[in-house]
Specification:
This protein is of the alpha/beta class and 273 residues long. It has one domain: Rossmann fold. It contains eight helices and eleven strands. It has a seven-stranded mixed sheet with strand order 5-4-3-8-9-11-10, with no helix packed on it. The chain has a two-stranded antiparallel sheet with strand order 1-2. The protein is globular and about 50 Å long. The two termini are 25 Å apart.
């Protein structure tokens, strides 16, 4: 059961849109923010930029700047060798997976001209040609989407995000190992004056913890100064039908439950007795 501070504020579903695939890599955001956005800053790339490609189809004037120190020539060589072996072992027989063998060509085609990938690690300090801070990345920028999936390092940069929150239209962030870091997540949410939680989804690539919560959650925050909405906690059930989809098809999605829902149900039962 998730704490009540992880329950989003209400946004009507007609104002929400899924950008990216109907599997891992797709995110929910307020569609009213799309044409206010000038740039997407992607922290953590791996081999997936489907969200960014989809977004640029809707708003072609936007540009994408990505940071991931792990995506290198060695990364692509290793991936290609692995894919070829899987192909001959008949582990890649679906058309989508066969096309994915040649993902590198999509990479070099997408990250050219105005779209850039920098082979730098997101950090809380600047080290030339190795590490870069959110403060440095966002310096001189405004009206952007900040997308973060950096496998646990997100907790090291939360203060920097808060310090730059006025520049951010939407924050898309994955929190990993949430049970060990609940206090950091709570502090981030409660201290954020501009960025308000509007969507949550449990990533089913991971298992539940002992509290039956997903170990990884995907959160969407919208800047209240860019899109005005009443800060009223939603009564929606998560996942949302036809918006949320399983990250991994082979596993069931997480049905999210919150502490205040349990208390309300118990109070209702007590009244009926």
């Amino acid at each position: 059961m998730l704490p009540k501070y992880l329950k989003p504020f209400h946004i009507n579903n007609e104002n929400l849109i899924r950008i990216g695939p109907k599997l891992d890599g797709g995110y929910i955001l307020d569609k009213r923010i799309i044409h206010l956005t000038e740039k997407i800053i992607t922290c953590g790339l791996n081999d997936d930029w489907e969200f960014e490609k989809h977004f640029l189809k809707i708003n072609p004037s936007c540009e994408v700047i990505a940071y991931d120190h792990t995506v290198s020539k060695e990364f692509w060589i290793k991936r290609f060798k692995k894919d070829i072996i899987h192909f001959f072992l008949l582990k890649k027989v679906r058309f989508r997976k066969i096309i994915g063998i040649f993902k590198y060509y999509d990479y070099i085609n997408f990250f050219r001209n105005k779209n850039k990938h920098h082979q730098l690690k997101i950090s809380n300090k600047n080290i030339k040609n190795k590490e870069i801070t959110i403060d440095e990345i966002l310096s001189g920028n405004n009206n952007l989407i900040l997308k973060i999936d950096i496998e646990g390092d997100e907790y090291n940069i939360l203060k920097q995000i808060l310090n730059n929150s006025k520049k951010i239209n939407t924050l898309l962030i994955e929190f990993h190992d949430i049970q060990k870091n609940m206090n950091l997540i709570k502090d981030f949410i409660t201290q954020s004056n501009d960025l308000k939680l509007v969507h949550i989804h449990g990533n089913n690539y991971t298992c539940t913890n002992k509290y039956e919560n997903p170990n990884v959650i995907e959160l969407t925050f919208t800047n209240i100064e860019k899109i005005k909405f009443e800060q009223k906690t939603t009564n929606k059930n998560y996942p949302i039908n036809k918006l949320d989809y399983k990250n991994r098809h082979q596993k069931s999605d997480f049905i999210l439950r919150f502490e205040d829902d349990a208390k309300k149900s118990q109070n209702h039962l007590d009244l009926l007795r």
